[in-house]
Give the backbone structure.
Amino acid sequence: MKKIYAVIFSAVMLTCSSCEKFLTHDDPVSVTDDNWWKTEANATGALGSVYAGLPGGSSGRQLMFLSALSDEAVARQDTRGAYEAYAKGLQNSNWDVALNLWRDDYKDIRRACRFLENVDRCYMDSSLKDRYKYEARAMRAYYHMEMMLFFGGIPIVTESLEPANSNTTRNSEKEVYDFVVSELTACAPHLPDVYNNNEAWRISSGVCWALIAKLAMFYKQYETAKMAAQKVIDQNVYKLYRSTNTKVNSFAELFTYAGELNKERVFFRDNGCSNAWRTFAPYGVGGQTVVSPTMKLVNSFETLQGKTLQELGPDSLALYQKDPFYKNNRDPRLVASVLVPGQVYEKDTLRPFASEGSDRIGILNSTATGFWVKKYLDPKDRNGASPSLDYMIIRYAEVLLNYAEALVELGDWQNPDVINHLNDIRTRAGMPVVDAGKYNTQEKLRQLIRRERTAELAFEGARFYDIRRWGILGDVMNGQVHGAVDPATGAPVLVETRSCNVERDFRYPIPLNELLANPKMTQNPLY
């Protein structure tokens, strides 16, 4: 499986070119259409270039960095993107993260369009050719979906545009939403439910339905989300990962090489977390820390008894803030997701508040908060010559959470599937089943599901979308951000002060380059 992208990379180098505008990417190359589109191998390579644009977790478009645009984490090192500027409300139409996203996704859309326009020239098995076409259409829809979730209404592009006709206008969000749902719905029946392990990274029918569910949840189209998530569940292809080793926590193992080949991954990027060690790991163990968890995220995890820290009262809250793993009595997903002060990791005691040492808070390549992201860290990468850890863009756990939330929002909160799916997720992680006597109203179940999403999907990018669709963006992204408790003061360290204008910051800015190049393009509000 790991060799697939070597072939894809070669194809990309042959077929892809640079651009003056993000919607046009023609540039003279040594390989022309007339001598490229001939064989099945040519078609496979060209389709591989469409997949090459998939985002990773700690590479490419860095989906895990979206945590730093929520209340889960903060990011430093502008060489990886100016996420800190966005969190502080300082971004503008030159913001590099939006610029790169716009450029990359339209490049990928154009590759898909060119594939669909030219693949019929190739001499190959007709059934495989048809499947390839549906893969390209579904991937093109995915890139439109990704763009819309960040920018709102965008130009729908279904042909490879030439410079003379490349000045496109923005379609409405509804038009883009309808296009994406229509395309994915049309492609799903023609794509396999499963592929062999060597091609498991390809888009399947289950991926199409899972993407529709995710998109529909964002736009509060709960009937559509319920239907699409149910399609994935009814396929009986996916299931939550449970380790064969009874001595390890299945949730923790899921994000390591030991759990990499699993049936929980619905949509993933091969090698998408290959540089996780140089993105999240403590500097003292040879890593680099670019993204650091916040105290608010750490405090959101329940105790092993299923109690929130707020339910326990201020004394207990202070105790767990000082020692998040007090008496090993926290949700095991916290232990699997976050490294904390005083913890021994890879034989190194983490001391972010020491007067000297590599792990001191705030120094270059060290934590900004006193905490570290542990999810997707595997010690094998510490000295590994060729890290290759995959990144799961969508997991089956998220599909189950989307389905349960859709039921609750539709008023069907007493449906037994809600509790059953939550219990499946919680018990896999080592947490108790839901107390049905306590969570016995729509509002209580709504709050439980939101907390479950935070614990289960921490640092996977979901929170960025959740705080927007739940209408709490302004509540959680304004004011002070705190990290771990400083022993010298007994108080959580102040990390930064954030500023959020909801009307503006709900969306990314349209890049200035595109506005200058395309007179028909319009900017998002207040940029």
The longest helix spans residues 126-151.
